[in-house]
Design a protein that fits this description.
Chain B: Residues 82-249 form the DUF4130 domain. Chain B: It comes from Pedobacter insulae. Chain B: This is Probable DNA metabolism protein. The complex is a heterodimer of chains A (435) and B (252). Chain A has 435 residues and is an alpha/beta fold. Chain A is built from 16 helices and 10 strands. In chain A, the strands form 3 sheets. A 6-stranded parallel β-sheet of chain A has the order 3-4-5-6-7-8. In chain A, strands 1-2 form a two-stranded antiparallel ribbon. In chain A, helix 2 (105-117) links the parallel strand 3 (74-78) and strand 4. Chain A is globular. In chain B, strand 6 (167-172) and strand 7 (177-181) form a beta hairpin. The radius of gyration of chain B is 22 Å and the shape is elongated. Chain B starts with a strand and ends in a 14-residue tail after the last helix. Chains A and B meet through helix 1, strand 1, strand 2, helix 2 and helix 12 of A and helix 5, strand 4, helix 6, helix 9 and helix 10 of B.
Chain lengths: 435, 252
């Protein structure tokens, strides 16, 4: 009896020590992975087959939000933060004196499964520092996803990093199990990247992005002919750029994004405001505020490009290389192009209605549907969800008040600014100090 | 004139039938429980009838597409008296007008239906996101919820598809019923076990592994936060405080 008790106590101790070790690893490796902002779990309709666990949700689910307001959808971890590279902007760089750790394949699989079963997460986001070489790292990542899909019958979301320089066979095989793959551009321009990470170049990123993109297209074509073709990266590819570490203009950033959207049919480009993590004099020093407002404006521009039918040259060009900080890019485009306005809500085409400040996609859809049944009035517009105080300077509807004089752009801007208060107002001053 | 119905979906559809039978002009639909008779307003209690409801449903099926039928159903699940009345008015409106009239967002009832449907769908989505299962000793993954609207019928499929290889139980303790998945089908269950579970002994029902994983999850939640980007306003906008009691990561 006593021996049995001693044995079970010993077992308990082992379990406890193991738990403690995993706890430590998770803290280190989640901390190192958090600067990758990609969080989306959408775009994959992977079904739960063979009575396994998990399925994709086409619009994704954010299971919680961190205290900085970012969504937590995936268990975002590095396999290891050991790295042979020394990129100045990265916490895991070789020369940085931090705690290093590495998960085993089984640990990642067990964490993912148990978190998923409790509905904590929507899936796994697995990245890694480069240890030994690219192929060795990619092979380890591949082993994790294969084990999840084949042994554990896991059908939840998997976002996998493509390791630049890994062999095409490994990348192709990984694509059969992952829902999304991504490689980070890191710096918006080649010169910026060369400054902070001399060992890397944009070409390293472009090659695998292009390879995966061509594979996706090929698999889709084959799917048209043969029904039972396996899924290949069904949620497509994404990339990320660090903003504010090097002195690029907004124009340079967005033109790069636009090129990558077009050339590699990316689903998303993420803009990650640089959070100072080192005393390197080439970058903003520790204690500098992260450029949150700038990040927000870049995302707004990104949305205008992807969903509102704007051409990037209309928003950013040589005359306007930077986005306005005090007003959003759509409003600032409208103020520069007052000759298009006022737009008559009751007759204008859909693409013009989308360009009115204060009207979003869902309001625009409702307006186009509703006006078939009769001319729209101001009160109806308000109920549909139009931000009327903003839109009123740019629209005409059936009962718009008659106006004798035309206002100038700066007057309209002043009207709108006095009526609204920016949520970033307290950050706005810090922003200007940066540049 | 006021129509009173028994809060059932069939009762609601029957009242639409009765309106077209009698055509009494302007009518407001109200639930019968808690109705206060008004001296200046005549009222009629609708006798729920399966056949009449079916006929109205058939008519709706012909006129509305799936998306709109779902909107109506969501609106019904919001369980608010105003929503019931809006459904009633909307149905009458759809039958009186030609096909396609449901897209008239200038109409107050059309707009109201889409608004109610939107908030019910939002609540449904929040439940899909914020439910946190705890594994009990008998290997059932359990969670109790208290949603603003009756969303259990809407989330059933999602959880069945997702957790096909584990038994789970989601219990709505405001409406006193739950869904239990027995590895084959989802069953509706009624039981009164709240008192036992809400008392301090709840931990003893749980699998010992549960403490490990909830601690790991809390650790993860902490270490994935970037302190220099702290934005409490945005945080509470996405995760309103009334949901915090569901969330493992918000437990102290």
């Amino acid at each position: 009896m006593l021996i049995f008790l001693a044995k079970s106590l010993h077992l308990l101790e082992i379990v406890f020590v193991m738990f403690d070790r995993i706890r430590k690893k998770l803290t280190v490796l989640a901390d190192a992975a958090k600067y990758d902002v990609s969080c989306s779990s959408s775009g994959s309709d992977r079904k739960n087959d063979k009575r396994g666990l998990g399925n994709g949700h086409i619009s994704g689910i954010c299971h919680t939000y961190t205290e900085d307001g970012r969504c937590v959808s995936l268990l975002k971890i590095l396999l290891t933060n050991h790295c042979i590279f020394d990129c100045a902007y990265c916490v895991s760089r070789k020369s940085n004196d931090i705690e290093r750790a590495a998960f085993t394949v089984d640990e990642v699989v067990s964490l993912t499964m148990n978190f998923y079963r409790r509905n904590y997460i929507e899936g796994l986001f697995l990245s890694s520092g480069i240890f030994k070489n690219a192929d060795f790292t990619m092979e380890r990542l591949l082993r994790v996803v294969k084990k999840l899909r084949l042994e554990e019958k896991y059908n939840g979301y998997i976002h996998l990093k493509t390791i630049p320089g890994a062999s095409e066979d490994l990348i192709r095989e990984a694509g059969l199990y992952a829902d999304r793959m991504s490689i980070n551009l890191e710096m918006p321009t080649e010169s910026g990247l060369k400054l902070l990470a001399p060992e890397k170049s944009h070409q390293d990123v472009i090659k695998p992005l292009d390879f995966v993109n061509k594979q996706i297209i090929q698999f889709k074509d084959e799917k048209k002919l043969i029904k039972h073709i396996p899924k290949f990266v069904p949620a497509g590819q994404s990339t990320q750029m660090v903003i504010g570490a090097t002195p690029e203009t907004d124009k340079e950033i967005m033109y790069t994004a636009d090129t990558f959207y077009r050339n590699f049919s990316l689903r998303r480009v993420y803009y990650s405001g640089y959070i100072p993590i080192s005393n390197d004099t080439r970058m903003p020093i520790i204690g500098t505020q992260p450029p949150l407002l700038r990040e927000n404006r870049l995302y707004q521009t990104d949305w205008l490009m992807r969903f509102y039918g704007f051409n990037i040259q209309e928003i950013l060009n040589d005359q306007n290389p930077h986005l306005d900080t005090d007003i959003d890019p759509k409003l600032s485009w409208a103020l520069r192009n007052l000759h298009h306005f006022p737009i008559d809500i009751n007759v204008a085409p859909y693409r013009m209605i989308m360009r009115i400040p204060g009207i979003g996609i869902s309001s625009a859809n409702k307006i186009v549907e509703a006006r078939k049944f009769g001319k729209l009035r101001i009160d109806q517009l308000k109920k549909i969800g139009v931000a009327y105080n903003r839109a009123k300077h740019f629209i005409k509807c059936i009962d718009s008040p008659f106006q004798l004089r035309d206002f100038q752009a700066h007057q309209i801007k002043a009207f709108i600014l006095t009526e609204s208060e920016s949520k970033y107002l307290k950050n706005a001053n810090n922003q200007l100090l940066l540049f | 004139m006021v129509y009173l119905f028994d809060r059932s979906l069939e009762g609601l559809l029957t009242s639409v039938f009765e309106w077209f039978e009698r055509r009494p002009g302007k009518v407001t639909l109200m639930p019968d429980v808690g109705h206060q008779p008004d001296a200046f307003m005549a009222f009629l209690t609708i006798q729920t009838s399966r056949e009449k409801a079916d006929r109205v449903l058939k008519g709706l099926l012909k006129r509305l597409d799936r998306a709109w039928l779902r909107k109506l159903y969501c609106c019904y699940l919001s369980e608010t008296p105003e929503a019931f009345n809006h459904i009633f008015q909307f149905c009458c409106y759809v039958f009186k007008n030609h096909v396609g009239a449901e897209k008239n967002y200038g109409d107050p009832h059309v707009l109201a239906i889409s608004k109610y449907a939107k908030s019910v769908e939002r609540e449904k989505h929040r439940m899909e996101a914020f439910i946190r299962f705890k594994e009990t000793k008998d290997r059932v993954f359990y969670c109790s919820i208290d949603p603003d609207f009756n969303v259990l019928p809407l989330i059933s499929k999602h959880f069945k598809d997702r957790y096909g290889d584990q038994q789970w139980l989601i219990y709505d303790h405001r409406r006193r019923y739950g869904l239990y998945y027995n590895l084959k089908t989802v069953e509706e269950i009624n039981m009164d076990f709240n008192n036992k579970l809400s008392s301090g002994s709840a931990v003893s029902f749980m699998d010992p592994k549960e403490v490990f994983y909830s601690t790991l999850w809390k650790d993860y939640f902490k270490s994935t936060n970037i302190i220099s980007r702290k934005n409490t306003k945005l945080h509470t906008k996405h995760v309103p405080k009334r949901y915090w009691r569901y969330l493992t990561e918000k437990e102290s």
